[in-house]
Amino acid sequence: MKYEAVIGLEVHIQLKTRSKMFTRVATGFGQPENTLTDPVVLALPGVLPVMNKEALDKIVKAGLLLGCTIAPVCKWDRKNYFYPDSPKNYQISQYDQPICLGGTVEIELPGPSRNVMGEHKLIPLTRIHLEEDVGKLNHFARESLVDYNRAGTPLMEIVSDPAMHSAEEAFAYLTSLRQTMVYGGISDCDMEKGQLRCDANISIRPVGATYLGTKVELKNLNSISFVRDGIAHEIARQIAVVEAGGTLVQETRDYDGQTGASQSLRSKEMAHDYRYFPDPDLMPVKVDEEWKARLLAECPERPFDKQRRFFTQYQVPYTITSVLVPDRALSDFFEAAAQLAPGKAQAVGNWIVNDLLRELGNARLPLAESKVTPAHLAALVQLIEAGTVLTNAAKEIFVEMFASGEKPDVIADRKGLKAAPTDTGELEQWCRDSIAGNAKAVAEFKAGKDSAINALKGPVMKAAKGKANPKLVDETLRRVLAAL
Amino acid sequence: MPSPTDLNIDHVAHLARIALTPEEKTQFAAQLGDVLAYIEQLKTVDIAGIEPTAHAFPIYNVWADDVARPGLPVEAALRNAPAQRDNMIVVPKVVE
To answer: Could B61 and A73 be called an inter-chain contact, meaning their C-beta atoms sit closer than 8 Å?
Structure first.
């Protein structure tokens, strides 16, 4: 029997705010233990939570970017449980009235090759709600140590429908979701810093069936490639169990990315009973049309929308847009340069994808520190277009420009890299000399063998020490030959 | 009217992490049963056409701007901890 997997992802993303969700002590990663707490974080008696306006703005923006319906009114609930990572013994969350409903994540599946765009799909979302992160537990042999720095950080949970069917789809989903959130400035989504965390619910069923099989929750998928590997491993494990005549049990499994194996976590003695109830300390949130409109105006163009626009507006191919678009700053750089060099967008894109990224990589610099600006690049592309510099010289100019930040024509002048001669009289003389010394080629050309002109170009290039503009040489030779 | 048998006192005690003697279980089951019966009276109220609400007052959007301010020094944060090490609170080993 053939089986298909059914996968839903629960993704937790920390919102990029200065202060915590319900109190104004700073958020942060990598700070000394327990230095980002205050009486609200520690749940000392008598404290009251106050919402962070920026966190609300950010989650509404996230919802707008993903095409969610923003609830006109939503409220806060307490999720009650005892665990030392939560000082209050409850987590403030949203139970039956999440702030964002529905929506989709557009994904791109791998194409037939790296240079070819893959199939696009829309993965439907169930909901997005806002809650607070918990503290961090460090486990030792006989005890655990608690650091509350992370406790209370604004955290959104994005729940997909069980609508993915392969590890590749889950990987593409996370990749797209992360790009969109980074584009929107909603989170940096650095998985190494725990800013994006993913749990996967996975089941299998015979191909064609519509019911949902027994689901297994896979936890600790702490890098995007672990998500892909962990899900692929779990699908194979489930199929093997069923094909061997076994029965799947609903459980939570822990995936170890290092060993590529998963193991069942101790099953709970009884089902969780969180006793959700509305938080009496927090008033509900109302999002009106004006607020939504203001946030919508701040939302950037989404990555795939931008890619489609680049195809039509600049006629740049997938091989370039697929490198530019995932990085908002890089695509902005491209667009700024492309607008300064009208009609030369593809050349601009090639310079960025090949030369700029190579130099940035060698220098280990972020784009923001590049001395080559869009104006520099557009100027260089135009020098090439005008025939003022040749491609090899331009490559040299680019490297120099990257190092010094000088304008390309300044470098070309200083290093003598302009196509020679700029004096057309001198070029014409070289052409006449070449024609005078190559009677055979001239005769062949005159007899209709067009390619014979190439034999005349060599001596001109030699006279110009390789710096002559081939286009200009060709034109001049033809003009002089025609006048013979 | 719910009878005290609807109330699983063992489950409730476990959720609250309270150890109860058999006598206490009987006593609290009866008392909590009375509370449930009292609350049950709300069911007689006609709520047709009334929206569910979590709060009695129509107040919304109580928030503060995202401006960070200093928190507690670590010594103050840990002052109530029964045990501490390396500026962290020591708890019995918990692995889910």
So the answer is: no
Q: What is the pLDDT of residues A161-170, one digit of tens each?
A: 999 999 999 9
To the nearest 10°, report the CA torsion of A211, A216, A219, A224: -50
CA atoms within 13 A on the CB side of A402: 21
Distance of residue B32 Cα from the nearest chain A Cα, in angstroms: 16
State the Cα–Cα distance between residues A276 and A81, nearest whole angstrom: 10
> Tell me, what's the ipTM?
0.88
Nearest-Å Rg of the Cα atoms of chain A is: 31
Sign of CA dihedral A2, A160, A114, A196: negative
Best of A48, A130, A145, A266 to disrupt the B interface (most B CBs within 10 Å) is A145
Task: Say if A461 is an interface residue toward chain B (CB within 8 Å).
Answer: no
Q: Each residue of A66-99: pLDDT tens digit?
A: 999 999 999 999 999 989 999 999 999 999 999 9
CATH fold label, A424-483: Arc Repressor Mutant, subunit A (1.10.10)
Strands A154-160 and A136-139: unpaired
| Domain ranges, ordered by start, for chain A | 3-291, 301-414, 424-483
- Contact criterion met (CB below 8 Å) for A149 and A35: yes
Buried-state track A295-308, b at ≥16 Cβ within 10 A, e below 16: beeebeebbbebbe
How close does chain A come to B66, measured CA to CA in Å? 6
* CB contacts, 8 Å: A35 with chain B: 71, 73-74, 77, 87
Cβ atoms of A3 and A202 within 8 Å: the answer is no
- Which distant-in-sequence residues (6+ apart) come within 8 Å of B17 by Cβ? A82
Segment 69-88 of chain A within 8 Å of chain B by CB = 73, 75, 80, 82-84
Q: What do you get for the CA distance between the two ends of chain A, in Å?
A: 82
Beta-carbon count within 10 A of A331 CB: 22
Tally of CB atoms within 10 A around B44: 6
Residue A221's DSSP bridge partners are A198
